[in-house]
Amino acid sequence: MTTITLPKDLEDWARAEVAAGRAADVSGLIAEIVREHRAVYASHKALVEEAYRSVERGEAISEEDFDAEVDGWIAEDRAATK
């Protein structure tokens, strides 16, 4: 087991999470946070890698087309909220 030192604000938060019953102990809470971070990182990394492959396959769109698409989404959202 490795010992880590947290800044006071994070230690206070972690202890408060345990006191509130949202975690069994600080070590378990930190372990779960690290697991979640690893999963999110892996997911984001896969998305970025797929984006690069998409560009390499010539599937990217121009900045102008992208702007037009986003403008269309915004217009749809505005129309839906009226």
The ordered H/E elements are: HHH
Could you say how many structural domains there are in total? 1
Query: What structural category arises from helix and sheet content?
Result: mainly alpha
Rounded mean pLDDT is 96
Helix content: over 70%
Query: Could you describe the largest sheet, including whether it forms a barrel?
Result: none
Word description of this protein:
This protein is mainly alpha-helical and 82 residues long. Helix content is 74%, strand content 0%. It contains three helices and no strands. It is elongated and about 50 Å long.
Brief sketch in words of this structure:
The protein has 3 helices and no strands. It is an all-alpha fold and 82 residues long.
Q: Which structural traits does this protein have?
A:
single chain, 82 residues, mainly alpha, elongated
Topology diagram in text:
Layout: H1 8-19, H2 26-56, H3 63-80
